[in-house]
Amino acid sequence: MPPILTLNDGHPLPAIGFGLYKVDPAETEAVVTAGIDAGYPLIDGGAFYDNERQLGAAVRASGRRDELLVASKVWGDPVQSYDQTLADFDRSAADLDIGVVDIYMIHWPRPARNAYVDVWRAMIRLREEGRVRTIGVCNFNAQELQRLEDETGVVAPINQVESHPWMPQHDLREYHREHGIVTQAWSPLGRGRLLEDPTLIEMAERLGVSVAQVVLRWHVQLGGAAVPKSRNADRLRANLDLDGFELSEQDMARIAGLENGTRTGSDPKDRQ
Q1: Any idea where the NADP-dependent oxidoreductase domain is (predicted)?
Q2: 49 catalytic, yes or no?
């Protein structure tokens, strides 16, 4: 089982969870149930995914709510404000219907609106009221993270960003390390495109594992976290099975050589 990280707020974060982006609502309960059965302790959801009612239903039906961490995100469009964040949280909490939300994050900073600090203040209130255990952010750069800290005194425990061997985000990861922030990767497999990379294929064949396992092991050995997505029960189980092998320094160096800056998802600058 991948390690459990300790956040700067004292709460745990499993290094590997699974995500529900673009999972059809009609399939969500079955996918979440498969993930829970595979042993995942973290389910990464969000209001924008439009499947929170089905996520909550699967968690309740599992009878294992106390063993699971469930994440949600505030979308922030068309309105991004303190009051709207509280209203959006109320809607997500009602759809999930699982009690306290374990992790609640700002989905995008949308800096042109100059509202993300107010959104963060609303998140702090939700945490102080005990409605959320951990608050975090997604897709923030170092300057935006620093502004949150400077203006509220609260450092984000998690920043979920696109990160994979083609775009590892080393500078941002270093800022995170200096400030006690966990780098959690979305699109950790480059939306599946990395599965066709010849270097990674050769490495996986030599180690006797899948390419996805190689890449997820890379995330873990960097000290970060990741939320891969799969609708396939066998792949869900395999993505958790990272203990039986280790990437050598040479392997890590070869993976570092794959960096080319390729994004497979939205650039935060395009979300305003």
Answers
A1: 18-258
A2: yes
For residue 167, what pLDDT is reported? 96
β-sheet bridge partners, residue 12 = 6
111 exposure class (CB count in 10 Å sphere: 0-12, 13-18, 19+): middle
Mean pLDDT split into 10-residue runs, the chain, 272 residues: 93 96 96 95 97 98 97 96 98 98 98 97 98 98 98 98 96 97 97 95 97 97 94 88 95 96 92 91
Distance between CA atoms of residues 23 and 111, nearest Å? 28
pTM above 0.85, yes or no: yes
Domains in the chain, CATH or no CATH each = 13-191+223-231 (3.20.20.100)
Say whether 219 counts as a known binding-site residue.
no
Residue of 40, 49, 104, 175 marked active site? 49
Please return the burial class of 191, using the count of CB atoms within 10 Å of its CB with bins 0-12, 13-18 and 19+.
Answer: middle
What is the structure's pLDDT at 233?
Answer: 83
Distance CA 148, CA 135 (A): 12
- Sheet strands side by side (includes 182-186): 18-19, 42-44, 69-74, 101-106, 132-138, 158-162, 182-186, 225-226
